[in-house]
Design brief:
The protein folds into two domains: about 160 residues, 3-Layer(aba) Sandwich (Rossmann fold); about 70 residues, no CATH class. Helix content is about 30%, strand content about 15%. The protein has eight helices and nine strands. The longest helix is centred in the first third of the chain and has 15 residues. The relative contact order is 0.09.
Length: about 250
């Protein structure tokens, strides 16, 4: 089997489903003997990526600003130097940088894949994700959404590849240590003896936390809701608004 060079591009390597998928794919590529590169603005997961055999290239491609497009020539230089077989784009801002970098990428150009990780909005800003060589949809819902909203931009129908998980890492048999459990209930005493429904995910106005809270409010008092996940600095105002609107909840 021919060994491939594959570049994945995303805004940053912190916490989230996209980041988890990048790390898992990096681990798989290295195990199969391929060369794995990741371009991002860095983050807490960079060390894990490198420890598992990947190479990280730092580039400021995370800000939703026209100035970020100035990274296009730098990105093209990296692609020309590595000469990858595939570039896999996983977010909209880097996708626009990559699109502009095509002006400077030497032939033969790599195949470009993009993954729709969710139901992106349909304005001009988002349709870039549907304009590359091959499109991946992570669920049937996303696949239908892409076909319904971006048909004129697709070169081929999207390929359905379900998101998986590492069962060794996300084990259903996992149980935290007793000291952790005791500390948790010391920190959140209102959850003691409750049936806890957990909503994992980065805090965002479109991820469903508001609907989750409405659901919890309609359940008997024996149930409690727990929202687990980070919020970006750009979402700090939303976090404060969210926290104030639901002050009866313990949000951390």
């Amino acid at each position: 089997m021919r060994k491939l060079k594959i570049i994945q591009i995303l805004p940053s390597l912190n916490t989230g489903g996209v980041e988890r998928g990048v790390l898992d794919f990096n681990k798989y590529l290295v195990a199969k003997g391929h060369q794995s590169y990741v371009i991002s603005n860095g983050g807490r997961q960079v060390k894990n990526l490198i420890d598992e055999g990947g190479e990280h290239i730092h580039m400021q491609i995370s800000n939703k600003s026209l100035l970020t497009l100035l990274q296009a020539k730098k990105l093209a230089d990296v692609i020309n130097e590595i000469s990858p077989d595939i570039v896999h784009i996983r977010s909209r801002v880097p996708a626009w940088v990559l699109q502009l970098s095509k002006l400077f990428i030497k032939n033969p150009r790599p195949l470009i894949f993009s993954t729709f990780h969710g139901l992106y909005s349909t304005p001009f800003y988002s349709r870039i994700m549907a304009s590359f060589d091959h499109i991946i949809a992570i669920s049937k819902t996303v696949e239908k959404y892409v076909l319904d909203n971006y048909p004129e931009h697709l070169k081929f129908a999207p390929r359905l590849i379900y998101r998986g998980s590492d069962e060794a890492y996300f084990s259903k048999n996992y149980r935290p240590q007793d000291a952790y459990i005791d500390n948790f209930f010391d920190q959140f005493p209102k959850l003691t003896n409750k049936k806890i429904l957990t909503f994992p995910g980065r805090l965002s106005s479109w991820k469903g936390q508001e609907s989750f809270i409405k659901l919890i409010s309609e359940l008997p008092e024996e149930f409690a809701g727990l929202i687990v996940g980070p919020y970006q600095n750009a979402k700090k105002k939303y976090f404060e608004k969210f926290k104030n609107a639901h002050s009866e909840l313990s949000l951390g």
